[in-house]
Amino acid sequence: MSTSALDDLQEFHWMMDMLQSVDVGIVVLDRRYGVKVWNSFMESHSGMLPSEVRDKSLFNLFPSINQEWFAQKAKPVFELKTRAFMTWEQRPYLFKFPNYRPITGSESFMYQNITLSPLTSANGKVEFISMMIYDVTDIAVGKKQLEALQVQISEDQERTRQTPDRGMG
Fold first, then answer.
1. What is the pLDDT of residues 36-86, one digit of tens each?
2. Domain coordinates in residue numbering, the chain
């Protein structure tokens, strides 16, 4: 094997290792929403091995995902080669994974942001899309706590305005 081929093989190995070790869920889907790639984040949080999910329908594996809604989100990714985003504020999660974070243990599930990206083949067509699943539970919990605190402060201020000042007179 030539040095160049060995370097290419080594680089491919590093990329595959990175794909498996990154703390982000990575799923590759075909046009019929069959799973092609399922990284270790997804394996760890779903309890399903890549061999168990490969070539199976995302909607058969996760019946709680609304197929019509998801297809609407994915269509421009396939057709227009644009990215699509789903935030926890629109929908708290796509995959109802348990929350394993000790700091944010107050939530029973993992809040997620999702990015769908087109994967363009050598012929310029998009036959596959990647889905990146980010655990944003810490952010969501912090924002929810901040909003609750703001409501509490507002209510306290309103009560203070409504209570007559007894020190006068």
1. 999 999 999 999 999 999 999 999 999 999 999 999 999 999 999 999 999
2. 21-137
d(C-alpha 57, C-alpha 36), whole Å:
10
User: How far, in Å, CA of 39 to CA of 47, rounded?
Assistant: 12
pLDDT in tens, 114-166: 999 999 999 999 999 999 999 999 888 888 888 878 888 877 787 788 876 66
pLDDT computed for residue 15 by the predictor: 72
Q: By the 8 A CB rule, do 107 and 97 touch? A: no
Phi, psi of 25 (to 5 degrees): -75, 135
Say which residues have a Cβ less than 8 Å from residue 79's Cβ, sequence separation at least 6.
Answer: 126
82 close to 54: Cβ distance less than 8 angstroms: no
The domain at 21-137 falls in which architecture? 2-Layer Sandwich (3.30)
Distances (CA, A) of 1 to 7, 41, 156: 10, 34, 74
Q: Which residues pair with residue 130 across a beta bridge?
A: 28, 117
What is the DSSP pairing of strand 25-30 with strand 126-135? antiparallel
pLDDT in tens, 106-115: 778 899 999 9
